[in-house]
Amino acid sequence: MKNSLIPQIRCSHGFEMRFIVKEQDYEKPIGAGLMRYELDGVPTGAVEHWRLTQATEGYEVLRVDLDAREAASGHSYLYHLVRQADGAPERLAYRFWGDGLQVEGTLLFSETNITGTRAVNGRTYHEDLDIEPGTIFWFPSAIGLGLALKAKKVTGNTAVTLNGKIGGEDTLALQQVSVDVFFMITDTKPMEVAGKTLETVPTMVRWNDNQRIVVRDENYWPVAMQRPSYADGKLLSATESRYIWY
Predict the structure, then answer these.
(1) pLDDT in tens, 132-144
(2) What are phi and psi of 54, to 5 degrees?
(3) Is the pLDDT of residue 2 over 80?
(4) Mean pLDDT across the chain, nearest whole number?
């Protein structure tokens, strides 16, 4: 997958947001932003663009470009999520390239089932997973993880995500996990985000051996994320540097 084949949109800050499906004329912008990633306060070169739009019949489209081409990993992720008016996912298209891998996948959601296909370096795998109604879904990125914040209970939530361990044929494979989601404070606290003061709540998200702190605003939208590194003790963080609601 070559970068030149990915549609792009020029942003005012100089970075180009790439996307799988071009924004259509009938879509109305809802929000947009840019997260910058740092390791112990030092920029890594990775950025995460996002755009949320209103489509027809109440549907919303979330486009995310997690661009680490200038970071140590060199990875790129693109996501195109179509969700219903109640926030339930209906269709996800995703792309990844890096470490000699090219991954391209599509998932279709119903209330009790997820089906799809995933191609890894040209080899196709089929996905088929039965789920309980109301199962949480998120994809690997700071914005994607925000989809987990509306969990209905603190512990033992059944969730589905994509395998974020890169390197084999199961890269971004569909996987079912148990996730815990709990607020770290009982009230909101003010936080400066992209030149604005927002009321925020830090939220802990845990699944398998993973742990993230996602800071969300009053609309349950992620404005920051922190991931501790157990290997070297360093803290990876992502924070909105551009944050717009239309």
Answers:
(1) 998 999 999 999 9
(2) -95, 125
(3) no
(4) 92
The answer on pLDDT for 154 being more than 80 is yes
Q: Report CA-CA distances (Å) from 53 to 63, 80, 217.
A: 9, 11, 18
Contacts with 210 (C-beta within 8 Å, 6 or more apart), sequence order: none
**Residue among 124, 97, 119 at smallest CA distance from 4:** 97
State the amino acid at position 98 in one-letter form.
G
DSSP state of 6: S
Q: Radius of gyration of the chain from Cα atoms?
A: 17
Neighbours of 105 (CB within 10 A): 22
Q: What is the pTM of this model?
A: 0.92
Structural domain tally of the chain? 1
Between the CA of residue 161 and those of 27, 28, 41, what are the distances in Å? 27, 28, 28
Distance CA 21, CA 63 (A): 9
d(CA 90, CA 24): 18
Instruction: State which residues form the domain around 28.
Output: 3-245
Strand pairing class (157-162; 136-137): parallel
Judge whether 32 and 51 are in contact, CB under 8 Å. Answer: yes
Q: Report the phi/psi class of residue 194: left, alpha or beta, with left for phi > 0 and alpha for psi in -120 to 50.
A: left
pLDDT digits (tens, 9 = 90+) for 61-105: 999 999 999 999 999 999 999 999 999 999 999 999 998 999 999
Question: Is residue 13 pLDDT above 80, yes or no?
Answer: no
Q: How far is CA 62 from CA 41, 137, 182, in A?
A: 28, 14, 24
Q: What percent of the chain has pLDDT over 70?
A: 93
Give the whole-angstrom CA distance, residue 223 versus residue 221: 6
